[in-house]
Amino acid sequence: MATNRTVTTNQLKPNTEVLVRGKLEYSRLDKQISGEKLIEDQKSRKMRGIPIINRPYTIATISAPQVLPKNQGVQKSLEEIYMTESIYTQKASGKYMFQGINKGNRLPNVYELNPTTGKYDQVVLKHNLANGLDVTLVMRVFEAQPNNGVTLASVLINEPLRYYQAYDATVELSKYGFEFGTILDPDEVEKQQQEVKFQNDEDLNDATMTNDSPFGQEVQQAQPSFQQPQSNFPMPENPYNGQNVQNNGIRYTPQERNY
């Protein structure tokens, strides 16, 4: 990220919006990064040495960013300078990048350009957007303490909407003659898996509360009972029978040796 800033957030005017246009490289806009995914994200950020985000959030990262001036031919505003100074170079690719993050409770609004009317229509995303889309990030300044903040308020899609396509094994399997009927949406699969897990947890919890389950019964450790075995056979006679035996053991008499 940019470190040599000439403008701080406290110099920005709240409720001011700045537009930054570029090619979408990465996004999570259909839902927040939260729960286990947030924990994984925090670990990843820590390993990469970038700031950790401690609350659910949405994000959009673009390459080849351009800060669009509100007034052409006029000196850049402080807000536009701040956004320009937020552009950074990605180490792996050397590309110029810009990142918009929203930590609020609401998802950023997303609008798609209607080629017929030339207007932007609001859409509700079903999945993640495809990488490479021409988008404009709408960054908004908000008042906060002790410092003002900047958030990703909206995303404008400047071309027909496309969704991110993950690797689909059915495409490769179809080459071998396999035919597929119903293909579930990945989000629906995850939802059903969570429902099954929830039901299993409920069933296990119910089982522990009933007497029919070994988990619900108080298990006492069995105390072993030992009894001297009874025998009908007479005990063998002690060959020493007290002879040549002292308190400290057997007495040894050399004269009694037989060779």
Note down, in words, how this protein is organized.
With 259 residues, the protein is an alpha+beta fold. Helix content is 19%, strand content 27%. It has four helices and ten strands, in the order βαβαββββββααββ. The protein has an eight-stranded mixed beta sheet with strand order 3-4-2-1-7-8-5-6. It has a two-stranded antiparallel sheet with strand order 9-10. A hairpin with a 2-residue loop joins strand 9 and strand 10 (249-250). It is globular. The model is unreliable at 207-226 and 239-252 (pLDDT under 50).
The gyration radius over C-alpha positions equals: 38 Å
Q: In percent terms, what proportion of residues is strand?
A: 25-35%
Helix content: 10-25%
Q: Segments where pLDDT lies below 50 for 5+ residues?
A: 207-226, 239-252
Which secondary-structure class do the elements indicate?
A: alpha+beta
- Read across the widest sheet, the strand sequence of neighbours is 3-4-2-1-7-8-5-6
**H/E order of the elements?**
EHEHEEEEEEHHEE
State the shape: globular
Could you report the average pLDDT, rounded to the nearest whole number?
A: 79
Largest sheet features: 8 strands, mixed
How many helices? The count is 4
How many angstroms does the end-to-end distance come to? 101 Å
How many strand units? 10
Briefly summarize what is shown:
The chain has 259 residues and is an alpha+beta fold. The chain contains 4 helices and 10 strands.
